[in-house]
Amino acid sequence: MHGVEDTHGGAPAGSAGRRDLRGTLLWWGPRMLFVAGAVFLVVESSRGVPLPELYLALGFFGLCSAVFVGRQLGFGHERAPGERAPRWLIRAAALLSTAGVAVLVVHAAVAEGDALPLVGSVLLLLGLGWFVEAWRGAGPGRPSRALLPWGTALMVVTALTAALAGLLLPRAKGGLYVALLIALGVALFVFLPLGLNLLSEWGVRRLRSRRSAAGTGAGIGAVGILGLVVIVAVALSCVWLVRRDWMLAAVLVAAALLLLPAVVSNTHADVALVLAALCLLAAAPPEHPAPPDAAGGQRVLVALGDSYMSGEGASSYFRGTDDGGRNECRRSPSAYAVGLASGRRFDRMVFLACSGARTYNLNPASAPGPSRAQPGERGTQIDRLRRQPTPFHPALVIVTVGGNDAGFAILGEACLAPGDCRTQKPAFVNNLPKVRRDLIATYRSLRKALPADVPVVAVPYPQPIAAAGSCTGVALTEGERDFIRTFVEQLDTTMREAADRAGVTYMAEMKDSLATHRLQLCERRKGAAGINFVDIETVNGLAAQRFSPAKWLHNSLHPNERGHAAMQDTFTTWLDSHPELLPPAPTGREQAAGAVAAAEPEPLCGMTYQAANAHCRVLIRAWELEQVRSRWPWLLLVLCALAVLWAASIAAFSLLPATGRSYPAPPASARAR
Predict the structure, then answer these.
(1) Whether residue 146 has pLDDT greater than 80
(2) Alpha helices, DSSP H, located in 265-316
(3) Which of 144, 69, 129 minimizes the C-alpha distance to 94?
(4) pLDDT category of residue 305 using cuts at 50, 70 and 90
């Protein structure tokens, strides 16, 4: 160990000590600030704080990360020849990585501790980041020469694992399926980042060494400038996408534009970005207290049906109804039915509509047909309506159901996938006669469960897409848009026919609610429309649900707050024009289901799991997978574009001068360690 004597060119011991203290603060201060910001963000995300508080924590973490990344760019990591990485850095990286893996294993084994996946992921992320910091800081010598072979090996393993998983996952089951998922996760979230980091460091050093050997470095400098030009071009393309209303594509391009240069920069910027994304995904959307029950109400509005009635598509839901894996009814305070119940016509509300509901989720258990309660619900919707506390007298019952029986969500997936979804038209259209029969049975069961003087109104689905020749920002061809419009019209017609035959009122005006308020897709920018196109929103509930990408798109193709406000306005106007709703239609209007069924085509597949034939979702998913596989050249094109951006980032960062500072500042402290 060295004392405080003359360690800085004969400077007094006191001066050297102050420099040692300053160097220690410069070294440890930003790092500890980064760790403190990460801890604060993880704690706030795990607590499920309101979004304003979470954004405040995210801003604080961003500030801490900027200080640390700025310090890393200014001082660098590269060590002098022969200098080894600090032992504390290797030990800390090993400790954090081991702790992260242990926490994740414990959670997988006991399935308890909702915050454990986030905590384990963050610990592992920090540990891997410090391992990379130690490896990329290797000075000239054997560790530096290992950057290329190790980085290449990790990338090859990642590619082989991804290819194997892509081939086997569609047919894998049981333990093999889980093993493939784990292997794919390790490859994508461990091997791929490590390989990119090592190859990035090798590329930056290679260009810097060539520039140094060339003297003036005009040629190598031109490569770096070209890299900057490519990065600027990508940034401009992102702006162009935003202006053209391709928001999801713009977000993906921006993510690549931030993450790839962050990986190349040899800082913790990539760790900060991934950590912030994890905490945002782990954060649950805000919830509202449940509405009061209907006990004592004299003018009670009853709302039954599926997601178009429950309010899915909004930014927040009533507590306990957006609980991933347990109750996913997603009843929203912004649903138009809630707005109606808050007006002068009604004094209470029974809100039983539930996202994903099919006709058999409404049918009572005593019905002759299929009947099943949805997860987290205490019975079917009609059974729960019958069990309402007394005194209870509904003034109006409104119901929207049939879209899930008709496979509208499956149709949306098929049209968003590569390929022309019109080729699957028979699977959907041939199923509509069965939907009509199921709706008639459900409407009759509902009519039977209510007093004869209570009006029942069947509410159709609003037309989501405008009839426009061009449509910026909506990733559907004109033919696919026309197909969706036509199918919605056919579905609404099916609902009208079923309502007529079951003796309930049909509200035709709701079909044009978005059109009359100019809120359809293709009529204005997606951000101002009344219906979401592709909307990414996480869920409440267990971490396994919040981190599942399958749960992030549930708000897509559903009316948002603007849409439900327009639907409420349409319904209010309709009520004003019908001060006394017509009594139920006479049974003479009903037709025998058998006479209709004789001329109706049989469904090619079933949209419900009670169907005897294959489920349409299985067949459509197989078609979607085949469409993706047949377009593998496009995937190669995307990968090539990412590779170009990565290479441009390496070229741009090679323009920065290599730092001449020793790895741990100050030098005296480094030798003491």
Answers:
(1) no
(2) 269-282, 307-310
(3) 129
(4) very high
Contact 238, 249 (CB under 8 A): no
Is residue 341 a contact partner of residue 353, using CB atoms and an 8 Å limit?
Answer: no
Strands 505-506 and 456-458: parallel
- Rounded Cα–Cα distance for residues 570 and 581 (Å): 16
| CA pseudo-torsion sign 589, 592, 593, 598 | negative
- For residue 488, which of 455, 510, 456, 517 has the smallest C-alpha distance? 510
Q: Contact 521/513 with Cβ under 8 angstroms?
A: no
Angle between helices 192-214 and 218-243 (to 10 degrees): 140
- With cut-offs at 50, 70 and 90, classify the pLDDT of residue 278: confident
Terminal-residue alpha carbon distance, the chain: 8
367 neighbors 441 (Cβ within 8 angstroms): yes
**pLDDT tens by residue, 342-400:** 877 888 889 999 999 999 999 998 878 788 889 889 999 999 998 887 667 788 999 99
Is there a contact between 619 and 605 (Cβ–Cβ < 8 Å)? Answer: yes
pLDDT digits (tens, 9 = 90+) for 484-520: 999 999 999 999 999 999 999 999 999 999 999 999 9
Q: Quick check: 335 and 459 in contact, CB under 8 A? A: no
CB 100, CB 116: distance < 8 Å: no
Strand, helix or coil for residue 302: strand
Structure tokens at 452: 């004869």
Which helix (H) or strand (E) segment holds residue 303: the answer is strand 300-305
Dig out the tokens for 10 from the structure.
Answer: 């004969």
Give me the residue label for tokens 């005593």: 366
Which stretches of 369-460 are assigned E, i.e. beta strand? 394-400, 456-458
Q: How does the average pLDDT of the chain come out, rounded?
A: 80
Distance CA 62, CA 68 (A): 10
Could you give the CA distance from residue 603 to residue 613 in angstroms, rounded to a whole number?
A: 9
Neighbours of 52 (CB within 10 A): 9
| CA atoms of 92 and 32, how far apart (whole Å) | 13
Q: Read off the tokens for 660.
A: 């001449």
What are the tens digits of pLDDT across the range 615-669?
676 777 777 777 777 777 888 899 899 999 999 999 998 887 765 444 444 444 4
Question: Which of the pair, 604 or 191, is modelled with greater confidence?
Answer: 191
- Sequence length of the chain is 673
E-only strand ranges, 448-538: 456-458, 505-506
List the one residue out of 356, 371, 442 whose CA is nearest residue 404: 356
Whose CA is closest to 498, among 472, 541, 460?
460
